[in-house]
């Protein structure tokens, strides 16, 4: 498989975004975060997204003008951002920068962000903060989409609602990025497009049966994605999904009650500085202790030792930075489409 | 089943705690939170716990002297509490009060609490804050206990690590209290004592098989509790468990690396004021909107409509306040034992 250089990918995306009206800082941040997604191996949430972002920029459904961001500082540690559908990676990065400043002075900073455009791969934002021994948290929901049913119900009400958190550690930082549902909307669509079955039954059909067939999601009556915990413990995934829903949309003041349309996100961003609680050194000591205990556990399958959240991604990232990123065919195709329409046409690895 | 009056239970516990050296405020808060657990229907985490708390007070493993609490205010919104094993309900309530003051001024307040004694039922703390339109969060782990194995592993490393959050709503507030594992240590012990099978297979045997027999947890080689998500999606429950571990023990500076013994807890408490983000009214509107959408979903089983987190508990609470609390036999027996050893012996419903 052809490998693609991360710097070149960033430069290509930067040009594409600026040609479509994005300010330099918006283009740079969005390009960096998308490539970071692929570096961590999350190819559904990496540069593949650029094509859709560019279409939304062209159609006026996404905004590239950094000056549109409205920041309402309600206290030194609490702010509300109105993103006016600026590209999400720019908004989330600005929110993290804002929280980081607050956290290093006060121990915590928190931003509630409404009307963001799509925010890409949550794990992609964590590493710089974790390396500064800070704890970043990002929660998000998309109030324009419903794919998960409440536990015990059949009707789609909310989204997978992921939560990401970075845990600093000397030996092995933890990059956590998990949804509160069994699988994501992306997995359902991708598996269906490939004509495959899901790895595990994660769909509840419109008749209330559990299924591993993504077609059941799109059938009539329509199916839904099961919450984390499935039929046995799904009340927990449902509760956690509602928590993310409340801390994102409800807290921002803009959510499902406002019937938004199009690609968007409500986001909560927080940064915590352990130095203002029990201290950075003992935080790192404890992370290292737990990481060693987990990695030292006898594996259930001797072929598959315990892995920590983010461990595979960070190992891939080191490889991909040195040797290039092996983009899957669907990603290459999306990049081809994005480039074809630009001044770069004929001058990149994508044509 | 005999029903017990909530006020009388509180008064009984208050006397028992003060007779064993607890300051009046420690005794009052602990009594109130324990009874609150039973009012919400969580009888394993209600007044049943008093007997164990009293034993630890007598043995010097728990502290009842409120003056031992050390508060280190590291910023107006960030504090570290060293609980010196004061009764947990008192410490958590103090932490919530501290966070509430910070949140109403700054939008957020956060306390990291180390060396707490056991903190009882997390849901029991939420209602007063939720009724004031604030969002309380409580996360906890017990660094002296290991019962859950890392995903893919067989060795017990950490605890169920629950997370509680209260979501204000005009029609139906949400009281969320869920662990990041399939079941709790308490459920394993209680089911074993009754000679029953678990409701769902939630144990991983020491040989790596999934089981619904609680005996497999205690067998040799010993079993463990499966993370939320079980074998299919347990990497998510594992990641969430590590998040709670980090935000409690690591953040407090005191955890598993310090090899603590006895009943204890590391706790993170946070309060968020929606008024300092998108506004209280729109928060309540959004909660009401989501609650209606969930409750309006067609149920999977027509006999069992969708219920929101906390809905059953709050409905029980109204009944129990009016008509008394139907304490199960094991709780009555624990109360009998606690009373027998006190000045109240012969003067209560428990003998």
Secondary structure layout plus pairing:
2 copies of one chain form a homodimer.
Chain A: H1 6-19, H2 24-39, H3 50-59, E1 70-75, E2 78-82, H4 88-106, E3 108-116, H5 127-131, E4 135-141, E5 163-167, E6 174-178, H6 185-193, E7 203-204, E8 210-211, H7 215-218, E9 224-225, H8 230-252, E10 265-272, H9 280-295, H10 311-323, H11 329-340
Parallel strand pairs in A: 2-3
Antiparallel strand pairs in A: 1-2, 3-10, 4-5, 4-10, 5-6, 7-8, 7-9
Helix pairs in contact in A: 1-2, 2-4
How do you describe this structure in short?
2 copies of one chain form a homodimer. By secondary structure, chain A is of the alpha+beta class.
């Amino acid at each position: 498989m052809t490998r693609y250089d991360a710097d070149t990918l960033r430069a290509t995306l930067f040009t594409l975004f600026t040609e479509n009206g994005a300010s330099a800082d918006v283009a740079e941040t969005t390009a960096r975060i998308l490539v970071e997604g692929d570096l961590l191996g999350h190819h559904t949430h990496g540069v593949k997204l650029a094509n859709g972002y560019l279409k939304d920029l062209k159609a006026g459904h996404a905004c590239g003008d950094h000056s549109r961001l409205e920041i309402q500082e309600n206290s030194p540690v609490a702010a509300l951002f109105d993103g006016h559908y600026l590209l999400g990676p720019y908004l989330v990065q600005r929110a993290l920068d804002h929280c980081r400043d607050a956290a290093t002075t006060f121990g915590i900073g928190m931003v509630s962000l409404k009307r963001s455009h799509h925010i890409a791969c949550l794990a992609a934002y964590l590493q710089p903060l974790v390396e500064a021994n800070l704890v970043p948290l990002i929660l998000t929901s998309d109030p324009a989409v419903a794919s998960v049913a409440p536990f015990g119900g059949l009707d789609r009400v909310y989204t997978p609602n992921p939560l990401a958190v970075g845990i600093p550690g000397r030996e092995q930082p933890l990059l956590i990025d998990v949804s509160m549902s069994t699988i994501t909307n992306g997995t359902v669509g991708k598996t269906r497009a490939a004509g495959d079955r899901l790895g595990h039954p994660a769909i509840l059909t419109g008749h209330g049966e559990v299924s591993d067939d993504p077609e059941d999601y799109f059938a009539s009556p329509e199916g839904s994605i099961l919450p984390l915990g499935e039929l046995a413990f799904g009340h927990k995934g449902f509760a956690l999904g509602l928590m993310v829903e409340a801390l994102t949309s409800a807290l921002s003041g803009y959510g499902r009650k406002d019937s938004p349309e199009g690609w968007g996100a409500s986001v909560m961003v927080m940064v915590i500085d352990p130095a203002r609680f029990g201290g950075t050194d003992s935080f790192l000591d404890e992370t290292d202790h737990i990481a060693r205990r987990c990695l030292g556990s006898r594996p259930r399958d001797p072929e598959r030792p315990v892995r920590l959240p983010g461990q595979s991604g960070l190992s891939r990232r080191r490889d991909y930075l040195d040797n290039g990123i092996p983009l899957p065919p669907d990603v290459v195709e999306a990049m081809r489409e994005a480039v074809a329409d630009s001044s770069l046409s004929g001058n990149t690895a994508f044509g």
